């Protein structure tokens, strides 16, 4: 017995000896992001090894705000992400509900097409989307352009379909017997029951909108209409730019999401893992 | 159960409308645009124009080669790492599990722009922390940005850092759905942990691994932000230019939509082909 428990101890030590350095390597870029954001530019570009935060964050933030209107861009990013998340959760759960709970003509085709788009690169729709939104609809540099085209997502619908189809039939049948309309059953019976799944979905969608880069870069390129990642991206590669400022911006984009991640880890992980678990 | 066409389609309508306008039509449209000369006004139908140029364009083959190179090296390394992370995070022997999970999963919430900026600073030739650390253990500095091989390595390192944890989350969920009693039976039969991993975990996890592979391949196939921001528009001298970047340059810098659409369809064709091969290789034996 004691030899077995000492073998267990040995395995446990080996596990931590391997995993701890790997975890530290993984945390290192995030840690350095914070460190850089608190260092003056001449400190970032100096020969010494600096691994601890300094006290220059506010100066860096002011430099960033001088280089680009980052606060304004954050405002756009937050508003767009909130609106997008609300609309997308609504659309996605409605579609998921229909696919889970009704029998209808063409259902198999709809599901097959949604599954098919998972393996289709976004690049294929990018150019016509851009031509349509910018030239035909004349919506470049508007919020609509940022919010509406990305509303289609396939994994979210499959996730909600899965969530609704696991609910027992009699919950809804009872309401139907009472003569409650279908949309009321959806809104007042199904959605409240799906609250944890909706939370997971909302977090993933919010994050996707918050971090979205390529589409906002293309469609909202005017300074006053840029999202925060796009505004920050325009600074990277400029010669006369404050790198401390860029890092302050990176921290402002990242740290709120890290806090949300820590607080809502369960929902986050459920949302990401949902894609694979059938 | 009776058919409820009207009700069902009322719930599906907004979603399908967005899908039709912003996906179905663009998929058809970009196929048609790829057969048009788009730098004349008005655009004219010229079937061989873009595709003919594509098959003789060294820039295209360079981007294709780089994309495939990143694909065949980065994706397997990352998925292997993600499997290792998931297995170890799943170990009952692990203490302070939450801290380790945070370390590996945190990059999932980090935006491409933010992390590209950090990696640029960390890998800077003279002042980057990576070269300083290499020097401090007696190794020479690496010029990560002016030589092709280190620049490619840097892109792969960055993408792996960003996405390994994401895949580990999916794999971990898959592992946790394997019933515990399978392992209990194996342990009773004195099957070693290592054998349990190779003969129980891996085979049962295969569908999840394939799912991760497919998602990763499609993601890497479209790689854009990292070579755009970290190695400065695919530098050095096109050494890290990817198909995604070529599409961006052709479509949105040169406004050559026809050629860019041909590039886009090449990416789609490759993604679909690789996915099909993957599904075929991992099909269930009859």
From TrEMBL, chain A:
GO terms for biological process: transmembrane transport. Residues 74-264 form the ABC transmembrane type-1 domain. One of its GO terms (cellular component) is plasma membrane. Keywords: Cell inner membrane, Cell membrane, Membrane, Transmembrane, Transmembrane helix, Transport. It is a multi-pass membrane protein. The chain crosses the membrane at residues 12-32, 70-97, 109-131, 143-164, 185-208, 241-264. InterPro entries: MetI-like, MetI-like_sf. It comes from the Bacteria. It is found in: Cell inner membrane; Cell membrane. Pfam families: BPD_transp_1. PANTHER family: ABC TRANSPORTER PERMEASE PROTEIN MG189-RELATED-RELATED, SN-GLYCEROL-3-PHOSPHATE TRANSPORT SYSTEM PERMEASE PROTEIN UGPE. Belongs to the binding-protein-dependent transport system permease family. Part of the ABC transporter complex UgpBAEC involved in sn-glycerol-3-phosphate (G3P) import. Probably responsible for the translocation of the substrate across the membrane. The complex is composed of two ATP-binding proteins (UgpC), two transmembrane proteins (UgpA and UgpE) and a solute-binding protein (UgpB). This is sn-glycerol-3-phosphate transport system permease protein UgpE.
From TrEMBL, chain B:
Keywords: Cell membrane, Membrane, Transmembrane, Transmembrane helix, Transport. Pfam families: BPD_transp_1 (PF00528). The keyword Acetylation does not apply. Residues 64-278 form the ABC transmembrane type-1 domain. It comes from Mesorhizobium kowhaii. This is Lactose ABC transporter permease. It comes from the Bacteria. GO terms for biological process: transmembrane transport. The keyword Transport applies. It is found in: Cell membrane. The lineage of its organism: Bacteria, Pseudomonadati, Pseudomonadota, Alphaproteobacteria, Hyphomicrobiales. The chain crosses the membrane at residues 12-35, 68-90, 102-124, 144-164, 197-218, 257-281.
């Amino acid at each position: 017995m004691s030899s077995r428990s000492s073998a267990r101890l040995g395995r446990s030590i080996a596990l931590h000896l391997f995993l701890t350095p790997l975890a530290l390597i993984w945390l290192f870029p995030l840690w350095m992001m914070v460190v850089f954001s608190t260092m003056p530019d001449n400190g970032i570009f100096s020969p010494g090894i600096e691994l601890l935060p300094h006290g220059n964050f506010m100066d860096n933030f002011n430099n960033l705000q001088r280089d680009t209107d980052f606060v304004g861009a954050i405002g756009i990013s937050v508003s767009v992400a909130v609106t997008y998340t609300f609309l997308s959760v609504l659309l996605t759960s409605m579609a998921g509900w229909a696919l889970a709970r009704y029998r209808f003509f063409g259902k198999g085709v709809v599901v097959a097409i949604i599954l098919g788009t998972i393996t289709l690169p976004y690049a294929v729709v990018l150019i016509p989307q851009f031509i349509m939104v910018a030239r035909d609809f004349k919506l470049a540099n508007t919020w609509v352009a940022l919010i509406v085209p990305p509303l289609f997502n396939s994994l979210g619908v499959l996730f909600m379909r899965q969530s609704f189809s696991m609910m027992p039939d009699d919950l809804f049948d009872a309401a139907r017997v009472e003569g409650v309309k279908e949309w009321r059953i959806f809104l007042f019976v199904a959605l409240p029951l799906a609250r944890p799944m909706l939370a997971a979905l909302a977090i993933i969608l919010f994050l996707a909108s918050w971090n979205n880069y390529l589409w906002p870069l293309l469609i909202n390129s005017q300074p006053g209409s840029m999202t925060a990642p796009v505004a920050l991206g325009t600074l990277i590669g400029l010669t006369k730019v404050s790198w401390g400022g860029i890092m302050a911006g990176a921290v402002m984009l990242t740290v709120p999401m890290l806090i949300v991640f820590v607080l809502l880890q369960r929902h986050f992980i459920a949302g990401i893992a949902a894609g694979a678990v059938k | 159960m009776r058919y409820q066409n009207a009700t069902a389609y009322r719930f599906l309508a907004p979603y399908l409308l967005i899908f039709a306008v912003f996906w179905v039509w663009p998929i058809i449209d970009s196929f048609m645009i790829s057969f048009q000369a788009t730098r004349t006004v008005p655009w004219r139908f010229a079937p061989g124009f873009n595709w003919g140029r594509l098959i003789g364009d060294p820039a295209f083959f360079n981007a294709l080669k780089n994309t495939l190179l990143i694909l065949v090296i980065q994706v397997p390394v990352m998925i292997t790492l993600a499997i290792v992370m998931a297995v170890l995070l799943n170990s009952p022997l692990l203490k302070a599990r939450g801290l380790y999970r945070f370390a590996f999963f945190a990059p999932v919430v980090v935006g491409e722009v933010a992390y590209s900026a950090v990696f640029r600073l960390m890998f800077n030739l003279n002042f980057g922390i990576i070269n300083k650390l290499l020097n401090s253990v007696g190794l020479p500095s690496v010029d990560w940005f002016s030589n092709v091989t280190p620049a490619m390595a840097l892109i792969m390192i960055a993408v792996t850092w960003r996405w390994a944890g994401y895949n580990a989350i999916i794999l971990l969920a898959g592992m946790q759905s394997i019933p515990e009693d399978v392992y209990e039976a194996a342990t009773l039969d004195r099957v070693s942990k290592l054998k349990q991993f190779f003969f129980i975990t891996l085979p049962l996890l295969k569908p999840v691994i394939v799912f991760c592979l497919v998602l990763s391949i499609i993601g890497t196939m479209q790689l854009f932000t990292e070579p755009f921001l970290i190695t400065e528009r695919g530098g050095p001298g096109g050494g890290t230019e990817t198909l995604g970047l070529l599409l961006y340059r052709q479509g949105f810098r040169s406004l050559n939509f026809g050629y860019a659409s041909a590039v886009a369809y090449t990416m789609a064709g490759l993604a679909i082909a690789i996915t099909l091969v993957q599904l075929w290789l991992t099909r269930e034996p009859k």
